[in-house]
Amino acid sequence: MTTTHSALITGATSGLGAAVARALAERGWHVLVHGRDPERADKVAGEMRAAGGRVDTHLADLSSLSQTRGLAETVSSNHAAIHLLINNAGIGPGRPPYRKRDLSADGHELRFAVNYLAPALLARLLVPTLRNGEAARIINVASAGQAPIDFADLRMDHRYSGTQAYYRSKLALVAFTFDLAAELADDDITAITANCLHPATLMNTHMVRQSWVPPISSIATGVRAVMNLAVEPTGAAVTGRYFDGVREARAHGAAYDPETQSKLRAATNEILEPFLR
Questions:
Q1: Residues 6 or more apart from 115 whose CB is under 8 A from it?
Q2: Catalytic site residue 98?
Q3: Assuming Cys at both sites, which of 33, 180, 181, 260 could form a disulfide with 240, CB separation 3.0 to 4.6 Å?
């Protein structure tokens, strides 16, 4: 892989994101490391540069749609093309008993905002830049934990649970991936594939440890799953698919439901429209 290939990875200052960033850099990719904390971003980037990697850092708080838009604008203005977007950043269920509900800067339930709205907005805004890349790919890091969305209560004002909020946000991301893939498949200008995956069960990450659940999988296992879609032929050969690790699998049935996808599309367009102008 030549250094002309660029990849944007969100949440790349720790855990799975940082490990995937290093793996891509080792293969000669120009890696765009996203994070919120400048010190952590500089540390990861410095380590990658010391190992011979080519890396830039981009700061943004993905709980803010305006900052998410700013991230996309900066990446697009600095890079004529990107070849890979990995929406990895996310917020887990939180600490037990998972009852604390937080809202984003824009007034959305926080997990829905970070785990779903931000990736959806980034993908939408970066499609033109991805089109400039040869056979570009979008990878959305989801989870096997998925639950149907209550469209009458997207903010989860009633009967809030951090676990349910997390599961709903991940189902939204999976359903969006399927919908986006179908849309991109109808565009014969340049091929862009869009797939999603559950990288590994309870990886040894801060998100898992914060939930007070013992990790059972290594980050290396998750890296193999993401890289399977990022650089191996699989990620170019299929689109609109859900993977469990390196194997194609079946997501929650609601993610395939046309009515769910239609309602999600309408709700998402309404929320994101001001940021897509």
A1: 90, 91, 166, 169, 170, 172, 173
A2: no
A3: 181
